Amino acid sequence: MSKTLFNCPNCGAVYRVIQAEAGPESKDREITCRSCGGPLHGREGSFVLKYFLVERPRIQALGRRSG
Ligand SMILES: [Zn+2]
After folding, report:
1. Burial 17-33, CB ≥16 within 10 A → b, else e
2. CA distance linking residue 13 with residue 27, whole number of Å
3. What's the distance, Cα to Cα, between the start and end of the chain in Å?
4. pTM of the complete model
5. Using an 8 Å Cβ cutoff, are 14 and 38 in contact?
6. Cα 8 to ligand 1 centroid, rounded to whole Å
7. 12: CA distance to ligand 1 center in Å?
8. Does the pLDDT value for residue 28 go beyond 80?
9. Ligand 1 geometric centre to CA of 16 (Å)
10. Within a 10 A sphere around the Cβ of 38, how many other Cβ atoms?
11. Domain residue extents for the chain
12. Alpha carbon distance 48, 9 (integer Å)
């Protein structure tokens, strides 16, 4: 079991990437960064990639709001 960490090139969010065998329902599916909405690779050869958000990017405080 291998862990692969991936950094979104756009916002720096950290994802854990898991390769899964492409099933019959695994069609080309666009995956986007949950943080910035940028495109992520959804497929690697015959595997599909699943992204699990590990760490949100450190965004410089653009008007902090608490609550
Ligand atoms: Zn991103």
Report:
1. beeeeeeeeeeeeebeb
2. 25
3. 39
4. 0.72
5. no
6. 5
7. 6
8. no
9. 13
10. 14
11. 2-55
12. 19
